[in-house]
Amino acid sequence: MVALGEGMKIRPQRLQVWKREGRTIAMLTAWDWLWARLLDRAGVDVILVGDSLAMVALGHETTLPLTLDQVVHHAQAVCRGVERSLVVVDLPFLSYQASVEQAIASAGRILKETGAQAVKVEGGYGLMATTVTRLTEVGIPVMGHVGLTPQSVHKLGYRQQGGTQDGGDRILQEAIALEQAGAFAIVLEHMPEDLATTITQKLSIPTIGIGAGNGCDGQVLVTADMLGLTEKSPPFAKVYDDLGNRVVESVESYISEVRSRQFPRSPLE
Questions:
Q1: Residues facing 246 on adjacent strands
Q2: Which of 119, 121, 140 is nearest to 129 (CA)?
Q3: Which of 173, 215, 223, 225 is the most buried (most CB within 10 A)?
Q4: What are the structural domains of the chain?
Q5: Active site (catalytic) residues
Q6: Rounded to whole angstroms, how far apart are CA atoms 16 and 46?
């Protein structure tokens, strides 16, 4: 049975209520109508149209080539498949870092053209905190993202962040700056569990972990990783199904039956 209010459309403010109540948040990624519809039916709280779609849907080696036009196109499809889940859309690389004005234009376009309820940005210091402040001032809900930030892959690589005292302090201060700027939640990616737990305890807004341990207010994975659709998953991802190989086996069975004329069967059989 669905609890009172559980069937209602989820808004950013609901996540903050859940943090106060101690209810954990489940978040996954989607890149088209089909996957969004399935995740929404399953009861996922937050669907992220992540820039990871550049890799799992478009075949790029990093998230950097994704354009604003492309993310708008995919987010439109995702939103058409969602009834209940909160939809958050990543702002792609260099669609928001150049200036506050650029960020407002890009984020505003996403909300106006897709039907999504929020955007996500990476980083927390300096201009980014100012950007988040202005986005929220004009009515655009923002989810932050600190720790391993994939759009900085050429600077940081994909290694764990915050393993030193200085590194951990920097990430903590970024998270605090994002909360003060008005972010409604923050993704904590690939950092020591004790650091993520400390950040979670210090913030009044929810934290969503990915490779950050069990002390966060919620968890997120790339759906293609957790279903075994990618050839290599991150070390912190749990693979819940080997769907990739099962799809290949099903297609091989189809091919075999077509070639042996077992499919389609005659209606007279």
A1: none
A2: 121
A3: 223
A4: 12-242 (3.20.20.60)
A5: 189
A6: 13
Amino acid found at 24: T
Identify the CA nearest to 48 among candidates 9, 16, 75, 69: 75
Read off the pLDDT of residues 156-172 as tens digits, 9 standing for 90 and up: 888 999 999 999 999 99
Residue 155: strand, helix, or coil: helix
Q: Are 151 and 64 in contact (CB under 8 A)?
A: yes
125-131-132-136 Cα dihedral, nearest 10 degrees: 160
Which amino acid is present at 174? E
Taking alpha carbons only, the member of 240, 220, 224 closest to residue 232 is 224
Stretches in the chain below the pLDDT threshold 70: 1-7, 267-269
Q: Are 140 and 108 in contact (CB under 8 A)?
A: yes
